[in-house]
TrEMBL record:
Region (Disordered) residue spans: 409-430
Keyword NAD: no
Residue stretches of biased makeup (Low complexity): 412-423
Record PANTHER family: ATP-GRASP ENZYME FSQD, FUMIPYRROLE BIOSYNTHESIS PROTEIN C
Domain ATP-grasp span(s) in chain numbering: 129-319
Gene Ontology molecular functions: ATP binding; ligase activity; metal ion binding
InterPro entries membership: ATP-dep_AA_Ligase, ATP-grasp, LAL_C2
Pfam families according to UniProt: ATP-grasp_4, LAL_C2
The protein, known as: ATP-grasp domain-containing protein
Keyword terms of this UniProt record: ATP-binding, Ligase, Nucleotide-binding
The organism's place on the tree of life at top rank: Bacteria
Length: 430
């Protein structure tokens, strides 16, 4: 896309950030990389979230209250601003839930973007599975169920174990494994709402994700990330290692399958984060996202690719500017999430030592004494994270684990009395 000479191009960041540290950091980083390229920036978000994320609004040239949960309304707002003389050259969303709105806005403005129907397809998990199956990719059997009776019928017709999950959610919220009909009611009870839900066959094998971006409409894989998850019945990610220590043949096959799948799904713009398993029958693709991966992957990538400006490269490509991606360095990064046992937090020990470690890339602690720590069942139950860099995947994984394990959470029963030493306090490693 070309811009009028003398007029700086403008980025419309649709949906801004959610009010949590990771989302805010991604949005602020996007805006900073836009500004470094001479772009003006305008952020939209729901009114309450604009107020709750002042760091994002402060990093932009303008901010407006526009509800990304109304994609058609977002496109109508953008068209009205254009009619008033404001120009948007790129419409981009870095949040999962704002992807459809960004695609609708881009289509309305004639700006680079993904087709709205393609984004809706990948945002609806069973529709994405159906599209991948139709394109010839191996997929687990899946059924959209309105109630427990429908789920039981699917279990009777398919091969277990199974996974019960929301049709449209993130952060492993409401996702659990069932090994037979007896566990179905409890799994359905964990779902975040009463909407129709999915039951699909469990895929056995190590899980990975693929991080990349589109250049010239073609997918470019940057890295494969190894994941560690809680054991069933829950599937919450507790650690990442980037790049994954994989044989070259596996890495090349993952690259081929992911690029082919993204093309088959009709995606062509922005970022991508694709989940998959390596199984006895080869690569089995999981969920497909039109955004960068969570879990501080946006912090890990520049450590492995010195000079990488992930969002800036997307903007350069959208504006028709040349993009030269930096080569990977001989080093790795890893993250580990803090998930102590449940209880009311009395004290945290060892955190200052973590913050002082020279290998640390990022650390956060989201609880303080007096807060109640919940059982670890979804990404929302994490209480912090450490992200480190090292010379190899094994060294990075080891360091992240050592730092996380060195943090001691002293807790008591939420309704109990004041702790009195080791006899009444529990120390839980992360």
């Amino acid at each position: 896309m070309t811009t009028t000479e003398g007029t700086p191009p403008q980025l419309l960041l649709v949906g801004g950030a959610a009010p949590n540290p990771l989302s805010v950091d991604v949005a602020v980083q996007t805006l900073a990389q836009a500004r470094a390229r001479g772009l003006r920036t305008h952020v939209t978000n729901q009114e309450a979230t604009v107020a709750a994320t002042p760091e994002v609004s402060g990093a932009a040239d303008a901010a407006s209250a526009v509800d990304f949960e109304d994609p058609a309304g977002s496109a109508k707002w953008a068209a009205a601003r254009r009619a008033e003389g404001e120009r948007f050259d790129v419409a981009l969303a870095v949040r999962e839930m704002a992807q459809v709105a960004a695609a609708e806005v881009a289509a309305e403005l004639g700006a680079p973007g993904n087709p709205p129907e393609a984004v809706r397809r990948i945002r609806t998990k069973d529709a994405c599975r159906a599209a991948l199956t139709a394109a010839g990719f191996p997929q687990p059997a899946v059924r959209l169920c309105a109630d427990e009776a429908g789920a039981r019928a699917f279990l009777a017709q398919s091969t277990g174990p199974w996974v019960v999950k929301p049709r449209d959610a993130m952060g492993s919220q409401g996702v659990s494994r069932v090994d037979g009909p007896d566990g179905l009611a409890a799994a359905i009870g964990l779902l975040p709402n009463r909407n129709p839900f999915l039951v699909e066959e469990f895929v056995d094998g190590p899980e990975f994700s693929v991080e990349g971006l589109f250049l010239g409409g073609e997918p470019t894989v940057l890295a494969v990330t190894a994941k560690e998850k809680l054991p069933p019945p829950f599937f919450v990610e507790v650690a990442h290692v980037l790049p994954a220590a994989l044989p070259e043949a596996d890495r090349a096959e993952i690259d081929r399958q992911v690029r082919a799948a993204l093309t088959a799904l009709g995606l062509r713009f922005g970022a991508f984060h694709v989940e998959l398993w390596l199984t006895a029958r080869g690569v089995v693709l999981g969920e497909v996202h039109g955004r960068i991966g969570g879990g501080w992957i946006h912090t890990m990538l520049p450590h492995v690719f010195p000079g990488l400006e992930f969002f800036g490269h997307i903007l350069d490509d959208a504006l028709g500017r040349p993009v030269e991606l930096p080569a990977a360095a001989p080093r790795a990064a890893a993250s580990r999430f803090l998930a102590p046992g449940p209880g009311r937090l009395v004290a945290v020990e060892g955190w200052d030592e973590v913050l002082a470690h020279p290998g640390l890339l990022y650390a956060e602690l989201t609880v303080r004494p007096g807060d109640v720590i919940n059982p670890f069942r979804s990404g929302q139950d994490r209480v912090g994270a450490v992200v480190v860099g090292a010379g190899s995947p094994a060294a990075a994984e080891r360091l992240a684990r050592e730092l996380a394990d060195s943090v001691r959470f002293v807790t008591e029963e939420p309704s109990g009395a004041e702790p009195s030493g080791a006899e009444s306090a529990e120390e839980a490693g992360a």
